[in-house]
Write a structure and sequence with these properties.
The chain has 393 residues and is α+β, with helices and mostly antiparallel strands. GO terms for molecular function: acyl-CoA oxidase activity; FAD binding; fatty acid binding. One of its GO terms (cellular component) is peroxisome.
Length: 393
C-alpha cells in the first residue's frame, strides 16, 4: 500500500506575511509579463521534447545532440504558435539549455544591429533572422579574454584587391571559447586589429564566413573546431564552445562593420562621430543578460535549499514529537536568508539594467551617446558582482 503524499511546505506557505501573488508579479516585472511567463512555462513543461531530467545521465555527444534537437523543435514551435517577440524570448528562457542560440541571437545579431551600417543590416539581418546563416561572436582569444585592446588577430587591408586579410599571427591569437563556434556557426563577427599600410588603427569588427553553406565544411584558410569537455557535465557541455584560427583569409571590404569607422576603397581610414565604445555595445547587452541569468541561477538554488530546509528535520525532539525543521535553526537562516535577499536584489537590478540598455539604445538612434559610459561601467561591475556571489555561495 502506497504511503499518502504529505505537503510539508503548505504550513510554511500559510505563514507568509505578504501577498504572494503580488510578489510574483513584482518578480516578473508586470502582470502581463507574469501571464506570458505562465503560458510559456506551461507550453514548455507539457512538451516531452524539452525534458531535462535525463541531462546528468547523458554523455557530451548526446548532450550536444539533445540541445540541437531542442533548438530545432523550439524554432518550429515558435513559428507554429506565431509567438510574439516577448513570448518567444520567454519561451527560450524556459527551455533553459545553455547553447540554445545564445551567441546567434544574443551577440551576432546585436553586433550587426549596433555596429553595422544600414546597408549592412539590410543584407545580413534577414539571413540571420531566418536562420539561413548561423552566427557567433569571435572576440575572446586564447591569450586575451575581456582585454579587447590586447587582441592579436589582424585584419590587413589590401587596396589592390579591395579586401581585408584576416590572420592569426600567433597561437595566443586563436579565438577561444565562443559558443556555437565549434560545430554549428556558418559565420562570425570577428574582432581584429585593423592594419592599413602598416599602421594599427585598433580593434574593429568583421563579418567572416567560416563554413560552406552547401556542406558545412570549413572554408580554405580556416581552422575551426570544438574545444572539448568543460567542467560540469550538465552545464556548458551542451554548447560547442570553439577554437578558431585564420591563415590569411580574404574577405570583401564591405564586410567590415562600418557604423563606427570606415575604410575607403583607396585605403583611407575614416572615423565617424560615433564613439568607439559602441564597438563594445554588444558586450553591454550580454552583461545585462548575465546579471539577469545570475539572479535566475541564484533564485533556483536558494529555492531548492529553502524548500529542503523546510522538509528536512533533525534533532530537537525530546518527547517523541517531530524533530526540528532545519529551517528553524538560526545558523541555517543566517546562511540562506541573505542569499534569498540577494536573489531578489539581483532580479530587480537586472530589470533596471535592461531598462538602462534600452534607454541607451534609444538614445544611440538619436546620436546621443551621453549614457553609454554609465552603461559600460554599471553592466561590467554588476556582472562581476552578481556572478561571483552566485558562483561562490
Amino acid at each position: 500500500m502506497e504511503a499518502s503524499a504529505v505537503d510539508h511546505l503548505a504550513p510554511e506557505r500559510k505563514k507568509a506575511q505578504f501577498d504572494v501573488q503580488a510578489m510574483k508579479i513584482a518578480w516578473a516585472g508586470s502582470k502581463n509579463a507574469f501571464e506570458v511567463a505562465n503560458r510559456m512555462a506551461h507550453i514548455v513543461a507539457s512538451d516531452p521534447v524539452f525534458r531535462k531530467d535525463n541531462r546528468t545521465m547523458l554523455g557530451r555527444k548526446e548532450l550536444f545532440k539533445n540541445t540541437l534537437k531542442k533548438s530545432a523543435h523550439a524554432w518550429k514551435r515558435i513559428n507554429e504558435l506565431r509567438l510574439t517577440e516577448e513570448e518567444a524570448s520567454m519561451f527560450r528562457i524556459f527551455i533553459d539549455e545553455p547553447g540554445y542560440g545564445d551567441l546567434h541571437w544574443g551577440m551576432f545579431v546585436p553586433a550587426i544591429k549596433g555596429q553595422g551600417t544600414e546597408e549592412q543590416q539590410k543584407k545580413w539581418l534577414p539571413l540571420a533572422y531566418k536562420m539561413q546563416i548561423i552566427g557567433c561572436y569571435a572576440q575572446t582569444e586564447l591569450g586575451h579574454g575581456s582585454n579587447v585592446q590586447g587582441l592579436e588577430t589582424t585584419a590587413t587591408f589590401d587596396p589592390k584587391m579591395d579586401e581585408f586579410v584576416i590572420h592569426s599571427p600567433t597561437l595566443t591569437s586563436s579565438k577561444w571559447w565562443p559558443g556555437g563556434l565549434g560545430k554549428v556557426s556558418t559565420h562570425a563577427v570577428v574582432y581584429a586589429r585593423l592594419i592599413i599600410d602598416g599602421k594599427d588603427y585598433g580593434i574593429n569588427g568583421f563579418i567572416v564566413q567560416l563554413r560552406s553553406l552547401d556542406d558545412h565544411s570549413p572554408l580554405p584558410g580556416i581552422v575551426v573546431g570544438d574545444i572539448g569537455m568543460k567542467f560540469g557535465n550538465g552545464a556548458y557541455n551542451t554548447m560547442d564552445n570553439g577554437v578558431l584560427q585564420f591563415d590569411h583569409v580574404r574577405i570583401p571590404r564591405n564586410q567590415m562593420l562600418m557604423r563606427v569607422s570606415q575604410v575607403t576603397k583607396e585605403g583611407k581610414y575614416v572615423q565617424s562621430d560615433v564613439p568607439r565604445q559602441l564597438l563594445y555595445g554588444t558586450m553591454v547587452y550580454v552583461r545585462q543578460t548575465i546579471v539577469s541569468d545570475a539572479s535566475k541561477a541564484l533564485s533556483r538554488a536558494v529555492c531548492i535549499a529553502v524548500r529542503y530546509s523546510c522538509v528536512r528535520r533533525q534533532f530537537g525532539s525530546q518527547d517523541g514529537s517531530p524533530e526540528t525543521q532545519v529551517i528553524d535553526y538560526k545558523t541555517q537562516q543566517s546562511r540562506l536568508f541573505p542569499l534569498l535577499a540577494s536573489a531578489y536584489a539581483f532580479r530587480f537590478v537586472g530589470q533596471w539594467l535592461k531598462w538602462l540598455y534600452n534607454d541607451v539604445t534609444e538614445r544611440l538612434r538619436a546620436n546621443d551617446f551621453s549614457t553609454l559610459p554609465e552603461a559600460h561601467a554599471c553592466t561590467a561591475g554588476l556582472k562581476s558582482l552578481t556572478t561571483s556571489v552566485t558562483a561562490t555561495r
